[in-house]
Specification:
There is one protein chain. This protein is of the alpha+beta class and 435 residues long. It contains twelve helices and eleven strands. Strands 6, 7, 8, 9 and 10 form a five-stranded antiparallel β-sheet that branches. Strand 1 and strand 2 form a beta hairpin. Helix 1 packs across helix 2, helix 6 packs across helix 11 and helix 7 packs across helix 8. The protein is elongated, with a radius of gyration of 34 Å.
Length: 435
């Protein structure tokens, strides 16, 4: 079947094609005959419904299905004939001018761009590392102790680190405001949960004491009714409790999952967990740096269809995130169509460049790499063997791991080609960063 390909833009193509009427009619009759064997209509037994009635009831639907299949098949064959890489879905329209025995159509679509990769040796990358030392284990143990703190009544003035339970009422110009009062409200002084003026006012008060003090709300405060204003708070301290941290002993170790309470084993487990967490964060940070650099390896026009699809996907994920947070998207302002376009363009561009690097340098994921990645995931669970079976029992889960491995292969390739500056991060700096 003859087809005509026309270039209508940098990436846009228009393909003229046709499907034979006789073949369409033949397939319609064939499908209707198959359908007639099981069709049920009032007054007729299955298989005995007259063909004219079947044609009248189901003919238009069957004809549309057959025609759709024929056009889809013709488009697929034409794409193979012209060796095209189609980006997104084609827009199919009927056309005039086809032969008498044919139905003419045009398919308008975009193709993937040709990507010419730049020289990777021109890339400059910072590669970070972060050793885990005994002081880092000590800091982690201190955090674990705080997470298991007990509170004991303290017969003294409240100080930072104490938990205070209070009743309070806030007013502005003598009028109470919404959210400005509470009873039996507990918080830990010095953690920054309350406004600085509020903590200052409570600090130094003892159980049973009532104090009145001003609290200045910052100009950027979340409530427009309070932002930039000063309120008066009357606070009654009902309870002051001092923290009692657990001793680092066998009982503490057992709480952390060490059955025999061995402290050396506890430290070794904590260190192993820290090293695993640090390795993940270092890998993520180096990956982000590598991907940012890789994005500059090529310049090309992006298929609009891919950008729009990615932009829509980002918008849907944002809406789903709002739902997960308990918000009803219907009650929020409509998201402007171009909100995610810049992000979508960056993601599409990077995805195409990464795909080209993988193709050009044979960086596809190997089975042993996939298994190694899954086994690494499994180490964070109590039953690693069960986690490994979980991944290998589902193709979609395996595909997710494969994508992770491929990205890491690309990162490793970039690090092997680029000019590298190594930097060692302090443990606290890495753990406090966003990655």
């Amino acid at each position: 079947m003859a087809t005509q390909l026309e270039t209508t833009g940098a990436l846009e193509r228009k393909l003229a094609m046709a499907v034979p009427v006789a073949e369409i009619n033949r397939q319609v009759v064939e499908r209707l005959r198959k359908l007639s064997r099981n069709v049920k209509m009032p007054g007729f037994r299955p298989g005995k419904v007259p063909m004219k009635m079947i044609e009248r009831s189901y003919g238009p639907q069957v004809h549309a299905e057959v025609l759709g299949d024929a056009v889809s098949r013709a488009f697929s064959e034409a794409v193979d004939e012209h060796k095209l890489r189609v980006a997104g879905q084609p827009r199919i329209e009927s056309r005039e001018g086809a032969a008498e025995h044919e139905l003419g159509f045009t398919a308008t679509f975009e193709v993937y761009p040709e990507i010419a990769l730049g020289e990777p040796s021109a890339l400059e990358l910072e590669r970070v590392s972060c050793p885990v030392g005994e002081p880092d284990v000590d800091k982690t143990i201190a955090i674990l102790r705080k997470q298991r703190v007990n509170w004991a009544a303290a017969d003294r003035a409240a100080q930072d680190g104490d938990r205070v339970t209070i009743d309070f009422t806030g007013t502005i110009d003598g009028v109470a405001f919404p959210g400005g009062s509470a009873t039996d409200f507990a918080f830990v002084l010095g953690e920054g949960r309350m406004l600085p003026d509020f903590e200052t006012g409570v600090r130094g008060a003892g159980s049973g004491e009532t104090k009145t003090f001003p609290v200045a709300f910052p100009a950027e405060y979340g409530s427009a009714d309070l932002a930039g204003k000063t309120a008066q708070f009357e606070v009654t301290v009902k309870k002051v409790e001092a923290p009692q941290l657990p001793e680092v002993d066998e009982a503490f170790a057992r709480q952390l999952g060490v059955p025999d309470g061995d402290l050396a084993r506890m430290r070794a487990d904590i260190r192993a967990n820290l090293e695993r967490e640090v390795a993940q964060r270092v890998r993520a940070r180096n990956k982000a740096a590598a991907m940012e650099a890789i994005a500059g390896l090529a310049s090309f026009e992006l298929p609009r269809a891919l950008v729009e699809a990615e932009s829509n996907a980002l918008g849907e994920r944002a809406i789903e995130d709002l739902r997960q947070r308990g918000m009803d998207p219907k009650n929020l302002p409509q998201i402007p169509p171009d909100t995610f376009r810049d992000q979508a363009e960056r993601r599409v561009r990077l995805g195409l460049i990464v795909a080209e690097i993988v193709r050009a340098h044979g960086l596809q994921a190997k089975p042993d790499q996939i298994r190694k990645q899954i086994e690494e995931f499994a180490q964070a669970y109590e039953n690693p063997a069960e986690v490994v079976r979980y991944y290998f029992s589902d193709r979609d889960r395996l595909a997710e791991v494969e994508a992770i491995v491929v990205e890491q292969n690309v990162v490793d390739w970039a690090l092997s080609k680029a000019r590298i500056t190594d930097r060692e991060l302090a443990f606290d700096e890495l753990m406090s960063s966003g990655q």
